[in-house]
Structures are given as C-alpha cells and as structure tokens.
Amino acid sequence: MKWTHLALCTLVLTALAVALPAQSQPVLTFNGHMHASAPVNRSLDMQLDANPGSVAFILFNVSPGPTPFLGQQLPIAVDQNLVVGVQNLVMPPSGVANFMIPVSNNPALEGITIYAFALTFDQNLPSGFGFSNAADFTFVKEPLAGNDTAGWVDRDITLDGGATLAPGPLTNGIVPSWSITQGPAGHNAQLTGADTLFPTLTADLPGTYTVTLDLLAPGTSGGASDDVQVDVFALTNATHAHGDFDPADPITFSATLAGPTPTMADVNGQPAGAMGALSVTQPAGSPFNEFFTTITAAGGQVVGRPITVVSNPGGSLAAPPVDSLLTHIRQPIVDDIELVIEQAVALVNLSGPITGIPPINVVNIPGLFGTTLFSADVTPTGFSYDPAIMVDITLNAGAAHVQLTLNNVQFTFDIMGLIFNAPYTDAGTLTSSSVTIDFDLTLAAVNGAFESTISNETATINGATLTFQNGVIPNNFASTLLGAVVPVIEPLIATTITAGLAPALDSALSLLPQMIDLSPQGLDVVVDLPASGVDHLAGGLTFKNAAGGHASQVPATAPLIPAYFETPSAAPSFTGVVPGGTTPYRLAFSVGDDFLNQLLAAATQAGALETVNGTSLTLSGMTVNADAGSLATALPGLGFEDFDPAAAVEIVTRPTLAPVVRIQAGGPDAFSMTVSALEIDFRVQVAPNYQASVLRVSLDAEVGLNVVLDPVASTLDLVPGTVTATAHPLDSLPGVDVSGQLGMLSGLINGALPGLLTGLTGLPLPAPSTGAPLSLVGLGPDGPAGDYLSLYFD
After folding, report:
1. pTM for this model (two decimals)
2. Would you say residue 746 has pLDDT above 70?
C-alpha cells in the first residue's frame, strides 16, 4: 500500500460536498472493528467493503474530525497531516478488499490513534459517490495470553499475560480484558481478575477451555487479542476421597481421569490404563498413604493432586475422647496446699447452719408422782471459732479422709425446762478448746463436672466447759447437763458444718473449666474438658478429663474432616515414682494423643491452622522480603519475575486434612506431628482486592511437637520442635517448571510450618493450682500402649 501526502485534495473533497446520501455506503474496518485496537509487532488487517467495480480512496489522519467542509461533516480532520493511504483502488468482484499492514514493535506507537474513512466513486449509487463510516485504530502492546496450561476442576488456575508488559507497563488507559470464549457444554466456569494480566479461571467441568485476552484502548471494541487453551481435569469414580479413613492393609486407590487426553498421567509413578483408569495398591503407611496423581497436559504443563488416605478407622468428632487428660496429685502436694485450703475454708461461713435449729431435748429426769425433777430443751443461738482453721487431708484408696480442727469454739444456746416441776429459762455457753470434725470425701464426675460427696462425718468436742447466764440451774444439775449436751451437740456440729462445707467445695470444683473458647485468641475452636472420672488411690488422687475440641465456626472453604486419628488408649497408672526409675514426684500430667489429635482436627476444620505470612521469609538462613522482586531473585524461574517487583506476596499455609500427633519414644521432641497434603500457596497482590496464585505446592512433613506445662498457673502450651519437609508441585504459572526448585522451596517452607500451632498456647488445664513452683523430674511415653505423654514434677 502506498502512503501519499495530499497537497491538493480539494477536488476529492469538493466532490464529496455535492454528494447526496446513498442507500448503501462503503464499510471500513480494522481488525474486524470500526474502532479497533492495533497491536504493535503484528500486521493490521484493514478491510473495505464496497460495491464491485467502484474506485476507492482511503484517507487517514492523526487528528479526529468531524471537519465541516462545504456543508458536510467529514469524520476526520482536514489539515496538513491528512494522508491518502489508498487511491484509485478498483473494488474486486467480491466487493471486499483486504490489506495486511505490518506494524513494527515500536513502543513509541503505543497510545497513538489513527482516524480514517473511505471515499468511493460508484456508478451504482444514486449520487455516484460512496462515503464510509468513520473508523479508527489505536496502537497497543501486543497481547500475549501466555502458554497453554492445565489444572483441576474447582481449583484456581492462574493465567499469565505478563509477557504483554514487555518492554514496559500499560499506558494511556489501555486495559486488559479476559473472557471465556469456548468450553465444554453446560459449563459455568468463572474468571476473576479479568481486568488484570493474571486472571484466575475456576472451572466446574473437565474439558478444554479457550480464554481470550483482549487488550483494549479506550473507545475501542476489539482487534487486539490472543488465546490460551486450558485443559481441565477431574478424578471421577474414586474409591477414596481426600482425607478418608481406611484401616485396610494394603490400601487400594482407583479413579478415572476425566478431561482432555493428556500426554502422561500416573499415580505414584504408575501410569494410567485405558480410558484414563488410575489404580494403585500399596502397603498401609503410618499414618498417611498419599496417592499423588501427576498429569502432563498436551501443552506440556504438569499439574499434581494428592489424595491422602489415613490408615486408621478414625474417631468420632461428636464427643471428646474419654480419660485423655489426667492430673495426678500425690499426698505431698496435698500437704503443700493444705494452707491454701485452710484459707479458703476460713472464708466459708460454717456457723450459719448451726442457728435456726428448733429446740432439742437433752435432759428429762422424772420426779415423784408424775412430776419432773429436771428437764432441759436447748435451742442453738450462736456458734463461733477462731478464723484459723486447721485442715488435714489424707489420700486413701476409695476416698480422702478430711479432718477439720476449729479452735476456741463457743456454742451459745437458750435453755428452758422444769426444775422440781417449776419452769425456768436461761442462756448457756459451751466453751471448747477445740472441735475436730472428721469425714470421708469422695470426688466423682457427674454430667461432665467434678462433684463431691461427704460421708461418715463425726465431731469431737475437746475440753468443754458449760456456763449459764442467770445461775438458776443448780450446780449438780449443770454437770449432768454438760454430759448430756456434748453428745447431742457433736453430731449436730458434724452434720451441719459438713452440710455447709459441701456447697462451697462443689462451688470450688465448678471453677475447673469444662471448656475453653479460643475465639478471643482469634481461633474458632473450643477446647472441650468435661470431667470423666476420679480415681482415689492410697497416697494419690487422679482427676480425669475427656479432653478434645470442636470447631465453633466452620468456614465454607474449610476442608471436610470426617474423623480424627484415634488410637487404642489405656490410661497410665501412678505409683509415686517416675516410671523406669526411683525418683519420686508430687504432681503428674498425662496428655493422651487422642486429645491432641481431636483438637488438631477441630482446628483444621475451623481453618484455625491456616497461616498467612506476608512480611518476610527465611531462605538458607537469609531473610527475604515478601515481594515479587525479592522472590524472583531468591527463587528464579518460578514466575515471580513476571510481576511488578514491588508487588506484595503472601504465603498461605492451608492444611487440607488434620495433622496426626503420636508420642515419640525417643529423640529431641516429645511428639511427632505428621502432616500430609499441606498446601502452600504463593499469592501475588496483582490489584487492589485481588491476588493471583503464582505457585502451589503440597507438603509432607514431620514436625516435632513439645508440651510445655506450667503447674503453678495450670496452663499448657503446644510448642513446635524440629521440622523436616518434602514438597510436591501442585500447579504453577503456565510454562513454569517447579521441579528444579523443590529443594529450595522445602527449606523455605520449613520455616513456615511452626506457625501452624500459633494460638495453641496458654490453654488452661482443669486442675487445681499447686500454688508453689515445681521442677520437671521426668517426661516420657506412658500407659500400656504408650499413647500418653506424662510429665512428672516435684
């Protein structure tokens, strides 16, 4: 095509000025649009539709119209920049003329708009002239939708249009626009971030999808596009879902691969059979069996998906495991805390129950001829004692024996009756140096709470004297009265004081928590601690709790947790010395792995173990900022270089099934926490309120776990220990090969794993505070099956 400046175009324009409106006018388009975007580095398709045999001229200008000219409105400017790009073109018999105009890859062109229209000399039109529509095109960067890619149904698939940015950012209001232009029948796939260069496709059906990137300048409707194909796969008819529990050995996994025909498909290295059949049988692992499906799509993209089966029948999440948390106190601890108990008992009003008792007949001596020689009815009016109460508790098999000693006791009463058949009234005071009250105390679990039962209560009044206010009772009768009052008052004191003590004791026991809501700590988890029993032993007392947890809120995106990893547990016995040695202890805590496993299952279900790291990372001992530029340098070739170097990166750690804790018989950590299919998602902030997943890996890991107990504050912390991890690629940006960086990724992710236990600290225990510091004298597996970790303190 020849481009010629028109120094004198007046003749042509004058001809237009006298032209009459035509019934059928020429149509001018660029790249199929009247208002088009024209990519640099591509050819521009200019098309003119006009009547065959007509003679066409196509005029261009960088300035828009309209321009008034001899009574007409021209659609472009008429000035020194007006150019006739095509002249004397005789339209072919088809009536369609196409011109492919090469456009150089010149960034200086971006944003420039060229305006055009066509004039035809046409004998078929009434006026003899044709006057086309106004058309224009704006130069934009070449849209590059990236390499063909692949993914899974209902999983985010990030597309990469980042190459479009070369050699610089988008300018002049030019915006990308992605759309799904082809897919399997009936699909309802969704695109998010469609106005960025890194949209996310989420497909609901397997098949091949075509996604088109349009790069549109303002005011244009198309013309600059590129397509990418996305192969989407699904596993159907699977014998196991992710997270299933299966006690069989060996375990068989089978499924059918649905979707486009891949280049390669396998499970744990075993290739798929005919019609995409996948089947693997392997010996049961402990505790997880991972069946990792790897697909190589036709475009070369490799995607993976783990299906993990737990080698266990599983325990119900509906109720916490019985006797999974034990607190054992020995006689020396009881002796140590007796002062605390004495102070607590001193706050209880034990004199209240003594008053308000109706008169009690204590003496009735008949006289002659039906008369009464001496009688006495006693009505209690008061009971007092020194505030300092002595308490002595002895732990026996079946019950604890308790003795209370009240000092300087005064028992006041009104007395009335007959002396020599004559009525009298007086007031008396029984003074005692001390009163000892003995009873048996039995603790038990009732409806999830610890409750007390007092039995065999007796009282002994020591060193009693009796005085009267008015002196109307003869001395010989007073000694008789003392001997009669004491045996009556002793059981009265025993029953009424223990009756007042029992509610106070139950009230104190009710302070031991049955559940702990962790939502104030930002975790939608409730730790369940209902009482499940009490063992009274000679020299020891064991509080038992059915400890576990449940989710208080379950997010819609939470993984399905059907059960927790339950072991056949048998509670340890407590002998007073650390097992395997001779070291005595005063306090022991035994934590069952069932307690921790149900708690971790609940935390996983609540999304409480999901962590987000968006500040800095540790890689090979070095701190790396969480931005695309820093990660592109630290982890080259993983796709971070496609993004703005300043773009923030978040690393989301998301368990897809609950970790499993088991007691360690040796090694540096008390527990081993096994993690399978832990998803690590690297997400880049592409636009406000939109992140794109750049890389996802699945992690298998062993995390050491320790329990830190504070016996004074009665709190428990779960603290991570050593970490080893292996990463498997799930998906990445199109064309990115992750395999070469897995070792580096594993090292980076190791530092993120301890964050799983964030928040599981400071958990109150359902045990009385010792009130005094203790030191750890023993720690290790306990119980017949070794399913408890016991910590011994002295």
Report:
1. 0.82
2. no
